[in-house]
């Protein structure tokens, strides 16, 4: 509806999506993005909820995109040479570590800055961490080597996302 200019219809549809309990976190984040585009703001109580955390990492001429959501859903995309492989899983082990990653991101939320507009993909050796909240995405851009240091403030988030990636690879048999 938004594409056709029906802003009121788009807002009503997004609000209807958010009404029933149990809507997957990824879909809640998408509905909230539509509402933000239409100028709607979440209540202060909802604004800081972390719905998911995303890692984008420049590696070996490609980008690893990994997302973990509060309900345990996890997705990974690897884009070597312009192609993309996707892994989507609902495995209980993956769900457990995905929830842990979101909890780690929620604890470190003050370390993330408000994100505005499209950002370039991270260069080789760099990571962008993004938390998804009803108030909008918040990001941090860090060197991956720094994130691996246990003294780095965002190390717990990075380590938790690495555990999600490892669990997804085990689940996929690789």
| Main sheet overview | 7 strands, antiparallel
Strand percentage: 15-25%
Helical proportion? 25-40%
The chain-level structural class is: alpha+beta
Number of helices: 6
* Poorly predicted runs of 5 or more residues: none
Total strands: the figure is 7
Shape assignment: globular
Order of helices and strands: HHHEEEEHEEEHH
Q: Which sequence of strands runs across the widest sheet?
A: 4-3-2-1-6-7-5
What integer value in Å does the Rg equal? 16 Å
Q: Indicate the mean pLDDT.
A: 86
| Gap from first CA to last CA | 41 Å
Describe the structure using short key phrases.
single chain, 174 residues, alpha+beta, 6 helices, 24% strand
Structure commentary:
The chain is α+β, with helices and mostly antiparallel strands and 174 residues long. The protein has a 7-stranded antiparallel sheet.
Itemize the secondary structure elements and their pairings.
Blueprint: H1 7-18, H2 25-37, H3 44-47, E1 52-59, E2 62-69, E3 74-78, E4 85-89, H4 92-107, E5 113-114, E6 126-132, E7 138-143, H5 144-147, H6 155-171
Antiparallel strand pairs: 1-2, 1-6, 2-3, 3-4, 5-7, 6-7
Helix pairs in contact: 1-2, 4-6
Provide a short characterization of the protein structure.
The protein is of the alpha+beta class and about 170 residues long. Helices cover about 40% and strands about 25% of the residues.
């Amino acid at each position: 509806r938004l594409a056709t200019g029906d802003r009121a219809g788009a807002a009503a549809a997004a609000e209807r999506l958010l009404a029933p309990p149990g809507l997957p976190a990824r879909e809640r984040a998408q509905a909230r993005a539509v509402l933000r585009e239409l100028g709607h703001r979440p209540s202060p109580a909802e604004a800081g909820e972390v719905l998911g955390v995303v890692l984008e990492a420049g590696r070996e001429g490609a980008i690893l995109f990994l997302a973990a959501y509060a309900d345990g859903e996890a997705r990974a995309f690897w884009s070597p040479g312009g192609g993309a492989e996707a892994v989507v899983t609902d495995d209980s082990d993956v769900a457990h570590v995905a929830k842990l990653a979101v909890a780690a991101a929620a604890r470190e939320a003050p370390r993330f800055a408000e994100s505005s507009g499209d950002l370039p993909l991270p260069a080789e050796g760099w990571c962008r961490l993004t938390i998804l909240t009803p108030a909008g995405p918040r990001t941090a851009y860090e060197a991956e080597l720094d994130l691996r240091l246990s003294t780095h403030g965002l190390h717990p988030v990075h380590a938790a996302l690495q555990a999600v990636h490892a669990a997804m690879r085990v689940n996929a048999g690789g």
